[in-house]
Amino acid sequence: MTALLEVEDLRIAYGKIEAVKGISFKVEAGEVVTLIGTNGAGKTTTLRTLSGLLKPVGGQVKFNGKSLRKVPAHQIVSLGLAHSPEGRHIFPRMTIEDNLLLGAFLRNDKEGIAKDVQRAYDLFPILGERRKQAAGTLSGGEQQMLAMGRALMSQPKLLMLDEPSMGLSPIMMQKIMATIAELKAEGTTILLVEQNAQAALSLADHGHVMEIGKIVLSGSGQDLLHDESVRKAYLGED
Amino acid sequence: MNELPQQLVNGLLLGSMYGLVAIGYTMVYGIVQLINFAHGEIFMTGGFGALTVWLILPGGTTMWVALPLMIIGAIIVATTIAVGAERFAYRPLRGGPRLAPLITAIGLSLALQQAVWAWYPGAKSSRTFPEIPGGPFHIGDVTIQTGDIFLLIAAPISMAVLGYFVMKTRTGRGMQATAQDPDTAKLMGINTDRIIVVAFALGAAFAAIGAVAYGLKYGEVQFRMGFLLGLKAFTAAVLGGIGNIYGAMIGGLVLGVAETMAAAYVSEIPGMQQLGGQSWANAWAFVLLILVLLFRPQGLLGERVADRA
């Protein structure tokens, strides 16, 4: 059986500067896989390429057995690949409810959409309380909830989360991580990009450590969590 | 007799025509950050589209049959040209330097004027536009000219249709999303290239309705009619807050009323006798623009909700 997502020797460049220098990894259905690493390691670049916003200069991406090479960005989500981008990127001048509905832009099943909107409100009650409010008025953590809720509205086979904990208070961060754990328990397949290595590795089945465009270390979440070099470099121990 | 209500109504009617054309500037700007300076000429071709339909129809066709067909003709001509311009003139330049599409727009504007001047029969001078039969009608002291009745009906309906489209339909929501964050809109599955085409087409359609209103109001169309009117409509869009469709309509109305009032009353201010009358109306319109931009650079309805990161 092939994996849900297969990335092979992926290379991405901004002009002449290669940001991702040939990385390979897989995500199996039902797994949580995390990419960790410092700023500039190429994690966000990788996710933006997977969802078609950037074009790779080399390598292969297969999703559900299908090559994504020629699929334009706006068709990627219809294949079942949803992306909650770094910096959240909610639509600030639209209501929370309209933001969620945009996540279901390509769906036609009215009842199913209504059910999923309700599910997002169950997952994040604060969104339900403010459904008619402009999304730009939400706090950073609430916007993160909205971005995740919106990504889930497409009923993705694979949910890509880019830095969901960035800039959040410790309490809000815990809440977001608890939600990711909840989604994992429901069987959602997740590709998680995080700078908060501790939190990400505790959740993940597999992890990959990226440094300046390369994967330098791979292993199970628990192995990496206890790996000495990872502890030194990313978990603030000496 | 108190003239004020009459002047107010005149101003609102003129302003609603500005508003119809301003929608196209504001929508295209909101989505691709391009000032489509050819939009005034797209408006003009709409006028000639309507005239062409009238000339093709057999003589003696009543206006009640002809007018809907003329509107359709105007819309077809204007949207075809706008969509063609987007596809072949603007799209190849997307992602390039910001000045390139702007210069292209100015060039396109001249090309369209000259094309109509050179090839449309009799367009080297103005061409007579058909009239709606019947006399003006009166509400109290206010008289509405026959040529303005169309505006009175068409402008509110157009605005309602546009508001519904943008707020309630899927494509409308896709437009809002694309205007606010095009990359993220793609992540939602929105084909942003298509949305841009829709914005050009819609803007052209409303400009075409505005052009029919222009023809009926002034009784003529000419190849240069899009220049000053386009400039006014652009002013209205900026005045209302460019990028905001309601701002375009409000900006149009404010501009129309201000212009009319200035023409009617400025000369009564002691010492300003020479600065009143129709010949100064345009100058006052731009004085208003300067004043609004001094105190509210984002325009009357410019964005208020902060984009928090």
UniProtKB/TrEMBL annotation, chain A:
Family: Belongs to the ABC transporter superfamily.
CDD domains the UniProt entry points to: ABC_TM1139_LivF_branched
SMART domains: AAA
GO molecular function: ATP binding; ATP hydrolysis activity; branched-chain amino acid transmembrane transporter activity
InterPro entries: AAA+_ATPase (IPR003593), ABC_branched_ATPase_LivF/BraG (IPR030660), ABC_transporter-like_ATP-bd (IPR003439), ABC_transporter-like_CS (IPR017871), BCAA_Transport_ATP-bd_LivF (IPR052156), P-loop_NTPase (IPR027417)
The organism of origin for this protein: Streptomyces wuyuanensis
Domain of life: Bacteria
Identification of the protein by name: Amino acid/amide ABC transporter ATP-binding protein 2, HAAT family
UniProtKB/TrEMBL annotation, chain B:
Family stated for the protein in its record: Belongs to the binding-protein-dependent transport system permease family. LivHM subfamily.
GO biological process: D-alanine transmembrane transport; L-alanine transport; L-isoleucine import across plasma membrane
Subcellular location: Cell membrane
Entry keyword annotation includes Membrane: yes
InterPro entries found in the cross-reference section: ABC_transp_permease (IPR001851), BCAA_transport_permease (IPR052157)
Annotated GO MF terms: L-isoleucine transmembrane transporter activity; L-leucine transmembrane transporter activity; L-phenylalanine transmembrane transporter activity; L-valine transmembrane transporter activity
Pfam families: BPD_transp_2 (PF02653)
Transmembrane segments: 12-32, 39-57, 63-85, 97-120, 149-167, 195-215, 246-267, 279-295
Protein name: Branched-chain amino acid transport system permease protein
UniProt entry keywords in alphabetical sequence: Amino-acid transport, Cell inner membrane, Cell membrane, Membrane, Transmembrane, Transmembrane helix, Transport
